[in-house]
Each structure stands twice: as C-alpha cells, then as structure tokens.
Amino acid sequence: MSANAPIRSLTPPDIRARKGGDKLACLTAYTTPMARLADKHCDIVLVGDSLGMVVHGLPNTLGVTLDMMLLHGRAVMRGAERALVVVDLPFGAYEAGPTQAFAAAARLMAETGCGAVKLEGGAEMAPTVAFLTQRGIPVMAHVGLVPQRVQSFGGYKVQGRGPDGMRVAEDARAMAQAGAFAIVLEKVVEPLAREITAMLDVPTIGIGASPACDGQILVMDDILGIFTDFQPKFVKRYAELGTAAEAAIAAYAQEVRDGRFPAAEHCFAERPGEPRTR
Ligand code: KIV
C-alpha cells in the first residue's frame, strides 16, 4: 500500500471473511490513547460494557448505560483507524424487542461512527439479531457466559458442560443463522468451543474458550495488569502496569513532600530586563 493511500478500516464483511484464515486478534479499549495502541495491532477493538467495572468501579455490567457506551464509543473511534470498532449494547437497552434494540444500536452507530454492535444472549435473541442485520446494523453475538445475566446464572460459571453443551451450541448456531458476522464464545468448555468453531461458517472469537477459535479477545486492563480486582483463569497478563503506575505515583508524592519536585527545569525564568508589572 502506498504511503498516500487512504487508511481503510476493517469492516464486518472483512472480519467474516477471515473464517478459518489468519487468527483475529481482538482487545477491548475505552479511551482514545488505548484505542490508538490497540488499533496498531488488533483487528477488532471492542468498547465492551466491561468498562462498567474496569473504568467506573461498578460491581458488574448491569449498571452500564447507553450514554456511557456512547461517550466511550466516541472516544475509541477518535483513536482507531484500521481496526473494526464494535460497541456493546448495554443491559436493558435491547432485550425488550427488536425495535428497542434497533433504536439503541442505531444511536451507537450514528453517534459514535462504530462499525458494528455486540449483544449478549442465545437463541431467544435471534429474531432481534435478524431484525438488526436486515436493517444495516452489523451484529457480533456473544454466547456462553453472558455477564449481563450474571444474576440469573448465579455467578460467572463455566458454560457448556454435559447436557448444557447442546444449549450453547444451539445458541451459537441460532446467532449465526440470524446473521451475526462473528460470535464471541465466553467461558465455554474447550472441546465444545472447538466443535462450535468447526460447525459455524462465521468466525468465533474465544474468551476462555479454545485456541481453535478463529480469534481471541481479552480485556485490555486485564492483560496490562491495571485491573486486578479479580483475575479470571482465562486471562494472561502481559505487563504489570498497575504496579509500575503505583511506584511512579508514590515517587511523585514523595518528591513533592521532600520539596524535590518541581526542580529548576520545571520552572519558568523571567526574561532579563522584563519589567514586572501588576
Ligand atoms: O465487555 C467486554 O469486555 C466483553 C468481552 C468479550 C471482553 O464483552
């Protein structure tokens, strides 16, 4: 590509076409600077409703609002040039029916400029996914463990063990048939995630699922060691930025208390001969 060629961001059909091809690297981001970093290396940047816990200190994703997703969606779009930006539909904004979902998804797309939305749920959400995709809203589905239903599930439990496997597989199949361009499989037992990946003709994106999935996704703040309130088994930490940040903050506070900061190089000199007027 020439240096002057316009940068074209990946689209849902581009992601869909990667089924069985090069693995899709996906990560969440919630702010412009982090989106810039993720955009250099990832195919999908997800503005996940995990921002409720990671950025806003909420106990789970249930308190996340459409306004929060709009705000962070716009911030991430300012930092992403190449990756497909997908924004989560938050709890309560889409489950009542297709028209409610369309109104919320259309706002996310129109007001952030994102390329697609993600929604959680299984076969019961298939009519909604069909309604959206037939009206120009690309949908990434999220099945298996769906954190917005943590209360109904009784916790963040592994999905698809034993007879439950049939339900998870049916959920994934229903979402693909309804038109989802990719499907997140969260905390689904490994052999089942592998089988679902082989069964579907759209990419699966695993999180606590299987290396056989067509791509993987994790929460940015988890892999960087910034969000450490709890660490699921499926997270791998690639850095300890939380520890590094705390050391930097402690050093700053100590230098302020000791009078070592600011030093001369951080202060502004008067110009020679400049009269001081008040
Ligand atoms: O909200 C989120 O971050 C997600 C994931 C799939 C990581 O849905």
Provide an overview of this structure:
The protein has one domain (12-241): Phosphoenolpyruvate-binding domains (TIM Barrel, Alpha-Beta Barrel), CATH 3.20.20. 38% of the residues lie in helices and 14% in strands. It has eleven helices and eight strands. Strands 1-2-3-4-5-6-7-8 form an eight-stranded parallel β-barrel, surrounded by six helices. Helix 5 links the parallel strand 3 and strand 4. The longest helix is centred in the last third of the chain and has 18 residues, at 241-258. It is elongated. Bound molecules: 3-methyl-2-oxobutanoic acid (KIV). 3-methyl-2-oxobutanoic acid binds at residues 28, 46, 48-50, 88, 142, 184, 186, 207, 217, 219.
Write the layout of secondary structure elements.
Layout: H1 12-16, E1 24-28, H2 32-41, E2 44-47, H3 51-54, H4 66-79, E3 84-88, H5 98-112, E4 116-120, H6 126-133, E5 139-144, H7 150-153, H8 164-178, E6 182-186, H9 190-199, E7 204-207, E8 215-218, H10 220-223, H11 241-258
Parallel strand pairs: 1-2, 1-8, 2-3, 3-4, 4-5, 5-6, 6-7, 7-8
Helix pairs in contact: 2-4, 4-5, 5-6, 6-8, 8-9
The structure holds 3-methyl-2-oxobutanoic acid.
3-methyl-2-oxobutanoic acid binds next to β6.
* Count of domain modules: 1
> For the record, what CATH class applies?
Alpha Beta
- Read across the widest sheet, the strand sequence of neighbours is 1-2-3-4-5-6-7-8
CATH architecture: Alpha-Beta Barrel
What is the helix fraction of residues, given as a range? 25-40%
Report the mean per-residue pLDDT as an integer: 95
β-sheet strand percentage: 5-15%
Q: Enumerate the distinct ligands.
A: 3-methyl-2-oxobutanoic acid
Query: How many β strands by DSSP?
Result: 8
Number of alpha- plus pi-helical segments = 11
Q: Span from first to last CA?
A: 58 Å
Q: Residue ranges: pLDDT <50 for 5 or more in a row? A: none
What's the name of the CATH homologous superfamily? Phosphoenolpyruvate-binding domains
Q: What structural class do the secondary elements suggest?
A: alpha/beta
Could you say which overall geometry the principal axes of the C-alpha atoms support? elongated
Q: What fold name goes in the CATH topology slot?
A: TIM Barrel
The H/E string reads HEHEHHEHEHEHHEHEEHH
* Structural Rg: 22 Å
Largest sheet: 8 strands, parallel, barrel
